[in-house]
Amino acid sequence: MSEPIRQPRRGYSVRSLPGFAVVAVFTFFALYAPILILVAFSFNAGTSLAIWEGFSLRWYAQAAANEAVQEAAVRSLILAGVAASVATVAATMAALATTRTRRFPGRTMIYALINQPLMVPEIVTAVALLIVFAWIKVATGHTSMVYLISAHTAFCIPFAYLPIRARLETMDYTLETAAKDLYASPWKVFSRVTLPLMWPGIIAGYMLAFVISLDDVVITEFVKSAGQETLPTFMLGQLRRVVTPEINAISTIILAAGAILVSLFFWLSRGRR
Amino acid sequence: MAEVSAMSEPTAGALEREAERDDNRTRWLLSLPAMIIIVLAAAGPLLVMVVYSFLTPGDYGNVKWEFSTQAWVNTILQRDIFDDTLMWADAHLSIFWRSLSLSLITTVMAFAFGLPTAWFIATQPPGKREFWLFLVTVPFWSNLLVRTIAIQELIRAEGVINNLLLLLGIIDEPLQMMFTNFAIAFGMTYVYLPLMVLPIYAAVDKLDFRLVEAANDLYASRWRTFWRVILPLIKPGIIAGSILVFIPSLGAYVTPRVLGGGKNLMFGNLIELQFGQGRNWPLGAALSLMLMAAVMVSLIWYVRVTSRERSNV
Question: Is the pLDDT confidence value at A8 over 50?
């Protein structure tokens, strides 16, 4: 038995591996099917989450009329708005300080501190805040939204910082040098040249921080005082009861809001490449 | 005026040094607000937690200010209520084990689906890749709780999967999928899968396909080419993706709470328990620090893998 003469393989592509395309297509299907089913049943006329009984907006109407939902939604939006705003201002300043520079003493420490909230599991930060805030609440008797706002601001900072830094790093320094050469004051250089150039990064950072705050459930659950439900913690509490498509309706609205913000974020940060 | 002339003319070097000092000070001042917020509401409380882990639990939660190492001992050991002998805290150990094994299962499942998906995206024509990548990232950016609820509604006893199987006559009564380890692993794979796809995609994208062609020309079988050429080349991406899935799985709280219920606790839920019904804040603090240490080790590994990968380019 002599070795057969080998022929070059026909129709062989180095880029295809058997079965991979099938698994990939299934994965994409599996990624979207649960979300689409959840959205579909938010429009269900019946109370079932699995049996379609016709189209209706009744669950949206019910959610909109639910005072607890209204209150939680408003609280979520205010919290995200305030936290994202403060975080974006602080992150912009920090980004200006840590980019486009040689190494300066303490830069690594500033980096590490700003990214610290990303590195610790949320549940750990949550109980650490619970401990400290419980102590402050007992000592001062003060139980306003300030705890939630400061906690959200802290974990929003790295998310706001990253796109702003990315924007700054790709910005052309020559324009600012030109402004300085033309005797613009440092403030004028910043407000008329640097700030307009970095604006898309700032907006992108704000969007990201807003979404992250809006979506947070773990830290909020541990930091909130009685009666300070946000939309996610309200939903988490509802899951213990009989679930109706009202949850789907609220979920769909959250998904839509997040999708809009994230799309805007991608659109704004696209320019930097 | 007299004072100015009395001062010796500063050298150029001194002026530069002074400018540098001013610059450093400005940079520090600019970073200060961000750092203060993070120290007050994220990093600082972690240090307070270290202190709390060495205190005595209060009767109704919180702590008494008496030094004790009991919380650390109790993370893995417990005292017999009758004869005071120390023994393994089986309840805790089984939860650690569940956390570790479910995180590993999640990582393996995410790899099994993530590798073909990443490969598929990276081998699309260049213009189409962005679209497929976008499809992977959209679910990742959508609300984690909502995605977990979507899985819950799917696998409930009266959920879509059970209804479908009943309808097709494959099963006679609904399968119990909720509140099982399977539900947790399934849910975590679903929510963390994009974290696996993205680094592997980056690795396949950089893969030099001439090497694959060379292997093929030298009559290596497909399997051999995959095993000996492709896999070693994309290994850093696989390791990075695996760690990125493993870390949030280990610290997961929402997914096991919603899908695992009250019996199938993971590390995060055990921590919560100490601050709720357990009323043992020091133990909760000690457990949190343990979890943080485990995550830190994984993170350091991740940084080493990715920086090695970068230096190889």
Answer: yes
- Give the structural domain span for B29: 11-48
> Structure pTM?
0.89
- A93 contacts chain B (CB < 8 A): yes
Interface touch B150/A37, C-beta < 8 Å: yes
In three-state secondary structure terms, A101 is coil
Q: Is residue B27 part of a domain?
A: yes
- What mean pLDDT value characterizes chain B? 89
Total domains present in chain B:
2
d(CA A134, CA A127): 10
Q: Can you tell me whether residue A11 is helix, strand or coil?
A: coil
**CATH code assigned at B165:** 1.10.3720.10
Cβ pair B140, A33 in contact under 8 A: no
Provide, as residue numbers in chain B, all residues whose Cβ is less than 8 Å from the Cβ of A23.
112-113, 116-117
pLDDT band at A273 (very low <50, low <70, confident <90, very high): very low
Q: Find residues 244-273 of chain A whose CB sits inside 8 Å of chain B.
A: 247-248, 251, 254-255, 258-259, 262, 266
**What ipTM was reported for this prediction?**
0.89
Question: Would B71 be classed as within a structural domain?
Answer: no
Q: Which residue of chain A is at minimal alpha-carbon distance from B257? A: A236
Predicted confidence (pLDDT) at residue B313 exceeds the cutoff of 60: no
Q: What span, in angstroms and rounded, lies between the C-alpha atoms of B31 and B47?
A: 21
pLDDT in tens, B31-42: 999 999 999 999
The answer to whether residue A29 neighbours chain B at the CB level (below 8 Å) is no
Domains, chain A, with CATH or none = 17-56 (no CATH), 67-272 (1.10.3720.10)
Residue B168 and residue B174 in contact, taking contact as beta carbons nearer than 8 Å:
no
Out of B42, B153, B209, whose CB is closest to A154?
B42
- pLDDT tens, residue by residue, A153-195: 999 999 999 999 999 988 888 888 899 899 988 899 999 999 9
Within 8 A by CB and 6+ apart from B3, the residues are: none
